[in-house]
Write a structure and sequence with these properties.
The protein is of the alpha/beta class and 324 residues long. The protein folds into two domains: 141 residues, Nucleotidyltransferase, domain 5 (2-Layer Sandwich), CATH 3.30.420; 165 residues, Nucleotidyltransferase, domain 5 (2-Layer Sandwich), CATH 3.30.420.40. It is built from ten helices and eleven strands. α5 crosses α6 and α6 packs across α8. It is globular, with a radius of gyration of 20 Å. The structure holds 5'-O-[(R)-(carboxyoxy)(hydroxy)phosphoryl]adenosine and zinc ion.
Length: 324
């Protein structure tokens, strides 16, 4: 089954063509980061307008790269939420229109399920597994019992991990989106330079607001040009990864589940990926999407459309939604 997927929930306009949920025939992403950089974050109205400018171009490029004609597509899909409503509408209306024009089904996809599905691409991963999903908008541990049966077993009570990365980066005057730059700086720093605290919350909760405040307290002690940014980045990154891995491991052990996967934009983080690799020595089978499928993309949308589309009687009646 060949599915065309569209992603437009935030600041990436993307189209991809994927066969049977695992084989990517084309993956095109147009990022708006440069446009939003000067605002220090995504401006929803500007993002929606940019999606409109790019959507037809990325779809056309996906067809060309896959060397596929529209009539060869078996279903059209898009993210319907959670995300920015104006942005989601652009992708959803494009996919629904294609489905009507070519008389093929439209499949709506949940953005978080799409991040989980990124793990199916080019692998033979099968449920059950525990998935640590960390993105700019969400931090969750999900028990993926089956492709279409997933249970959230832990989630954030304040900021999402990617959001904390971006905010801490801003405190250190690192431009938006800070996550990837902070990760690079951490590689040059000493993780023991600062002993940042671990939040005392329930085992099914994440909280990183205390960590953010602790970083701010340290930043204030230095003159801006004397700030040991690399050491702060390394100590902060160590604390985040350590907390996330410990919690995930805890649940995997409780569920007696030997497979653990990583998902979401922060799955691109080097420390998290390293810590996941280390779990192999403890007898776990670990998965992390390829870097290009960690941050928002449409291959993961087409994959989720194959494995786990939103269940509904008439998918053309699906509406976009902003919150999970
Ligand atoms: O999944 P994603 O592309 O968008 C959402 O669905 O939110 O995630 C974007 C988030 C941003 O907050 C970005 O700073 C973070 O992922 N991110 C990283 C890294 N690469 C992207 N955070 C830490 N380390 C990275 N290497
Ligand atoms: Zn995302």
């Amino acid at each position: 089954m060949i599915i065309l997927g569209i992603e437009s929930s935030c600041d990436e306009t993307a189209a991809a063509i994927v066969k049977d949920g695992r084989e990517v025939l084309a993956n095109v992403v147009s990022s708006q980061i440069k446009i939003h950089e000067k605002f220090g974050g995504v401006v929803p109205e500007v993002a929606a307008r940019e999606h409109l400018n790019s959507i037809n171009l990325v779809i056309k490029e996906a067809y060309e790269k896959a060397n596929i004609e529209p009539h060869e597509i078996d279903a059209f899909s898009s993210t319907v939420g959670p995300g920015l409503v104006g942005c989601l509408l652009v992708g959803m209306n494009a996919a629904k229109t294609l489905s009507l024009v070519h008389n093929k089904p439209y499949l709506g996809v949940n953005h978080l399920q799409a991040h989980v599905s990124a793990n199916f691409i080019d692998t033979d991963l099968k449920p059950p597994f525990v998935c640590l999903l960390v993105s700019g908008g969400h931090s969750q541990i999900i028990y993926v019992k089956d492709y279409d049966c997933q249970e959230i077993i832990a989630s954030t009570i304040d900021d999402a991990v990617g959001e904390v990365y971006d905010k801490v980066a801003r405190l250190c005057s690192i431009p938006y989106p800070g996550g990837v730059l902070l990760d690079k700086m951490a590689a040059q720093g000493n993780k023991n330079a600062f002993n940042f605290p671990e939040a005392r919350v329930g085992e099914d909760e994440f909280s990183f607001s205390g960590l953010k405040t602790a970083v701010l307290r340290e930043v204030k002690k230095f003159k801006p040009d004397e700030l040991p940014k690399n050491d702060i980045a390394a100590s902060f990154q160590y604390r985040i990864a350590d907390t996330l891995i410990k919690k995930t491991l805890n649940f995997a052990n409780k569920l007696n589940c030997k497979k653990i996967a990583l998902a979401g934009g922060v799955a691109a983080n080097s420390e998290l990926r390293k810590r996941m690799e280390e779990l192999k020595q403890k007898g776990f089978e670990t998965y992390a999407p390829q870097m290009k499928y960690c941050t928002d993309n449409a291959a993961m949308v087409a994959s989720a459309a194959y494995f786990n589309p939103i269940k509904c009687e008439n998918s053309l009646m699906l509406e976009v939604f902003s919150r999970a």
